[in-house]
Amino acid sequence: MKEDSLWIEGDDPLHDVQPTISSTGDAGFRHIGCPLSWFKLVFPVVRGKNELAVALWLYRLRSIRRSRTITVSNGPLAELGIDRFAKYRTLRRLAKAGLISIKNDNRKATRIRFCK
Questions:
Q1: Residue 24, domain member (yes or no)
Q2: Which residues are within 8 A (CB) of 102 and not within 5 positions of it... i.e. 6 or more apart?
Q3: What is the CATH number for 56?
């Protein structure tokens, strides 16, 4: 996406969306790119910004695909400047913490299942 494309006039699907404000002043739910509960689980497990970005990206895929089992390829992360080794490290750490399970099928994209 070109940087200038943010300023192109046209239909904005989020134009009429308003946050729900609760009596405590927060947005009704705790979400920072992922639910705060997921962030609290992964933050102590990951090491560094790239691994945190991978964990957030994984949750995003889960939400988009509406499935606890997702396929994780290297391409989209490479576009963000995150190499496959950061992905592998993150997946191992999350699996060791019991947050996901990993299935590899001979040179195919890695499949993971969210346990939490």
A1: no
A2: 91, 92, 95, 110, 111, 112
A3: 1.10.10
